[in-house]
Amino acid sequence: MNESTPQATTKATTLRVPHEAARRQIVAILRAWGVAAAHADAAGELLTYADLRGIESHGLAMMANYEAHKGQGSFVAAPEVTVVRETPALALLDGGAGMGHQPAIRAMDLAIEKCARIGIAAVTVRNSWHFGAAGYYAEMAVRRGFIGMVTTSVWNSSVVPTFAAEAMLGTNPIALAAPARRNPPFVFDMASSTVAAGKIQLAAILGKPIPVGWSVDGRGAPETDAQRAWENRALTPLGGTPEMSSHKGYGLGAMVEILSGTLSGARHAAVEKHHGRSRRPFNVGHFFLAIDPAAMRGDDGFADQLDELIDALRAAKPVDPRQPVLVAGDPERARHDERSRLGIPYARALLERVRRMAEAAGCDYVLEAPMLEGRR
Amino acid sequence: MNESTPQATTKATTLRVPHEAARRQIVAILRAWGVAAAHADAAGELLTYADLRGIESHGLAMMANYEAHKGQGSFVAAPEVTVVRETPALALLDGGAGMGHQPAIRAMDLAIEKCARIGIAAVTVRNSWHFGAAGYYAEMAVRRGFIGMVTTSVWNSSVVPTFAAEAMLGTNPIALAAPARRNPPFVFDMASSTVAAGKIQLAAILGKPIPVGWSVDGRGAPETDAQRAWENRALTPLGGTPEMSSHKGYGLGAMVEILSGTLSGARHAAVEKHHGRSRRPFNVGHFFLAIDPAAMRGDDGFADQLDELIDALRAAKPVDPRQPVLVAGDPERARHDERSRLGIPYARALLERVRRMAEAAGCDYVLEAPMLEGRR
User: Fold this and answer.
1) Which 3 state secondary structure label does DSSP give A225?
2) Is the reported ipTM for this assembly greater than 0.90?
3) pTM recorded for the entire structure
């Protein structure tokens, strides 16, 4: 359709920004909105983590969502995060109706601390909101030599259960990370939808169609118009169609909803929708699990054995020799390494939006400096 | 193609068998093979559980696999199951290279007992084998008011990672069950492949083709011939294709492999295959997690809140009013209720095979008695 190649389009429409500049920009805008320092810092950390790894839907682009929700009472800028309950193996935090990043870091820290003493621990958070990329918290456990597992509910329904004509669940992600020795860690982070909502939003912003199977219309038929798919918030559960076992993606989404929402006593978007409500703040729930492999096995062989598994998977015969078999975390790590050096390539349309956001908030716009790449 | 309707075909080629007869038959054959009583009883319980719920791939049909493996040294008939390690929150069992059902029941019992004291517990088993339907063990936790989560590795590679031309992982299932109050429990049990291997085996036995997306050939192209797909053991990970996010199903399978195999110190089929080995016994690993919602929340509201979620999901607007939206466990429960009353409908071809198996083992064949349905 377009004469320019995708590569040329990318070059013409993106600018490389050092990740520390992106982090400073995010924190500056949030602080200007009145977000408490610890919470702004945590959000800056999480959004930069995502953009460095190419998880654009959870990076700087989220600031547009945060801005839209700011004026609607969706979150408290300076919340009081409290420990509601605590036992040697469990804890329940209340996020104080603020952003999710800071209470989530605190919850995973607590799970890790308890796990170090008794080998396993689970911490949940309720009355929270968006916490960024779930894999970040799972990786926190890995740095202590533990397995980390993380799930979160989502405040809006965007995933259509098998046989349903309307969205009932969020994109409800599940992340698991585990430490290897020679290899980088296994870091798995998936939305339980076929694709993340942010991928459809990005396609809508870029004016691109989406593949059959990512979204459905109100009658269960495929929706390939990205703009309509984004407006309808009607994603398929992983699997895509009943014949391809979409009931599994739907079941995974419900499992995440139970671990994150029911276990913590947070609110379920499906229940709110069922009753025709949409109360704010949203009261999202998160779940954090840490397991110490050394405590389970009685030896330190876990990381070595995971190396063997990772090596075997990487050595699998590929369909195309130019595309070797990957292990969870590989694509994100490659992008992290490249973007740490060269900066994060942001779409100019997104940068313009952030510029206006910074101006509206009355803080400096620091993303475009002399290190720019591509045409102005 | 065939003049008879599927319904007529089903009636002509199946017989209804009371589930207690099926259980007795399974136990009798296993005992005749020399399997220890506790292990034969556990297998009878698990296989009957599966057939009652329509999970035919994990029911009586498994006996043909067990028979094939019996002569190959795949499992020890009368194993010694031992507790290798035990802490207040964790335990590691050794299955003694026997069948998996009995050590798995023992492991989940242990996890539940520990969970009752400190709110969460994980138990793994190594040096084990096939343990039947994972959902069974997750449901054990529900009967105590707990959330149960269960995974297992598999001894043979049948799932082809994204971008690979050969199978590396097993069908690596994940199950999660949670207690409701008014509603039956949430019982989710999925293979991380698009479909279970047993579904392809059944299609091969019945001479039916399989849909595009369930299996791939050696060059990554779709395989629709069920017999070839079964022989090749080349299932797709949930998602089916890279565009439909098969990397998520692949990641889930690897996550299950890590929790079940790496955490317990069991063997990985992928590593064996990488080194061109196939040692027996197979040393399969299982993972069992129990969480007490009351200990997490400090109240007994979990089951009530899960009722609200289940009610909301069931009330979602359906695409077709004749097919309401289901919740994980619904189809299995409906079949369980029907089959408990009317008996389990077994394919005559399978019954013939079991008859020959019983004769070869020198024990009575008790599946065909006067309660038969359909033509002889």
Assistant:
1) coil
2) yes
3) 0.95
